[in-house]
TrEMBL record:
Binding residues for substrate: 134-138, 167, 180, 276
GO biological process: tRNA threonylcarbamoyladenosine modification
Organism, scientific name: Thiorhodococcus minor
HAMAP family, alphabetized: TsaD (MF_01445)
Function text: Required for the formation of a threonylcarbamoyl group on adenosine at position 37 (t(6)A37) in tRNAs that read codons beginning with adenine. Is involved in the transfer of the threonylcarbamoyl moiety of threonylcarbamoyl-AMP (TC-AMP) to the N6 group of A37, together with TsaE and TsaB. TsaD likely plays a direct catalytic role in this reaction.
Listed InterPro entries: ATPase_NBD (IPR043129), Gcp-like_dom (IPR000905), KAE1/TsaD (IPR017861), Peptidase_M22_CS (IPR017860), TsaD (IPR022450)
Cofactor: Fe(2+)
UniProt name for this protein: tRNA N6-adenosine threonylcarbamoyltransferase
Keywords assigned by UniProt, alphabetized: Acyltransferase, Cytoplasm, Iron, Metal-binding, Transferase, tRNA processing
The encoding gene: tsaD
Compartment(s) where it occurs, according to its Swiss-Prot or TrEMBL record: Cytoplasm
Entry keyword annotation includes Lipid biosynthesis: no
Length: 344
């Protein structure tokens, strides 16, 4: 079975083709970073308009790279949510229209399920069951995964997601958009001993997260330090390092706790923040110390992409799931509402 995947949930247009015999045959991503950088964040209307311009050309590109024509596609998967509703409408309308024109089944995919399954595209793929940490600009969740489609949310952010906190703190530090990677880069030059930030919600039971207070702590620390500082660039680097250390430590503590409480031995990390080098190093060492294994998608599949949508769509289409002509993109959508993947 060969599935075309389309991702348009935010500010990246991703298209890919997954084949059950050959794996990922082709994928391409167009980033809108340059468009939104002028505004310091994603402008939803501009994002939607650019998806309109880029989606069909990218579909033609991946078909050509895979040496396929439209008649060789067996199904279409598109991101149906969560995300920016205007951006979702573009991908949903194009994906459903192509499926109707090609007379193949279509399926709307949950964006975070796509991220969750992305590590399964790598070899060796993690065996089920496992714990998943989904950590991105819009979500921070710990999920117990017993099989594909059966998810139990163990904990999630009660306010800002980790990626969102990275971006907002980067803005406080006057770093360019997108802020998360820039903050991580600045943190490399920081002194880890100068400032100590709190590790929120780690001193109480439970697996939920809260990162909004770290932004305020970073702002207060920065303002106090800059009042007597003759080298502002050094202070900004030290604040960035302390912030990153706090986020990474918090995520590691919660993941270790999740493994202990569930008895699982495998952890996967997925989402844009999972590309963070310090997080990968610290998490891998901590989980190994617990006798467990850690899995990640390749960096190219950490950010939003069509490959994860094609692969997730394939899992559901292969199980006989598909949608009628009416499509229902949704800005908010809980993974707990997803139907299990049962194969006939």
């Amino acid at each position: 079975m060969r599935v075309l995947g389309i991702e348009t949930s935010c500010d990246e247009t991703g298209v890919a083709i997954f084949d059950d015999q050959h794996g990922l045959m082709a994928h391409a991503v167009y980033s809108q970073v340059d468009i939104h950088a002028e505004y310091g964040g994603v402008v939803p209307e501009l994002a939607s308009r650019d998806h309109i311009r880029k989606t069909l050309p990218l579909i033609r590109q991946v078909l050509a790279e895979a040496h396929l024509d439209a008649g060789e596609i067996d199904g279409v998967a598109y991101t149906a949510g969560p995300g920016l509703i205007g951006a979702l409408l573009v991908g949903s309308a194009i994906g459903r229209s192509l499926a109707w024109g090609w007379q193949v089944p279509a399926i709307g995919v949950h964006h975070m399920e796509g991220h969750l399954l992305a590590p399964l595209l790598e070899e060796p793929a993690p065996e089920l069951p496992f714990i998943a940490l989904l950590v991105s600009g819009g979500h921070t969740q710990l999920v117990d995964v017993t099989e594909i489609g059966r998810y139990r949310i163990l904990g999630e952010s009660l306010d800002d997601a980790a990626g969102e906190a990275f971006d907002k703190t980067a803005k406080l530090l006057e770093l360019p958009y997108p802020g998360g990677p820039e903050l991580a880069k600045l943190a490399e030059r920081g002194d880890p001993q100068r400032f100590r930030f709190p590790r929120p919600m780690t001193d109480r039971p439970g697996l939920d997260f809260s990162f909004s207070g770290l932004k305020t702590f970073a702002l207060n620390t920065l303002n106090t330090a800059l009042a007597d500082e003759t080298d502002p660039s050094r202070t900004r680097a030290d604040v960035a390092r302390a912030f990153e250390e706090a986020v990474v430590d918090t995520l590691v503590i919660k993941c270790r706790r999740a493994l202990r409480e569930t008895g699982r031995k495998r952890l996967i990390l997925a989402g844009g923040v999972s590309a963070n080098r310090r997080l990968r190093e610290r998490m891998t060492a901590a989980i190994a110390a617990e006798g467990g294994e850690t899995f990640y998608p390749p960096p190219s599949l950490c950010t939003d992409n069509g490959a994860m949508i094609a692969f997730t769509g394939y899992q559901r289409l292969r199980a006989g799931q598909h949608e009628p002509l009416i499509f229902k993109p949704r800005a908010r959508w809980s993974m707990g509402d997803l139907a299990p993947v049962t194969r006939s």
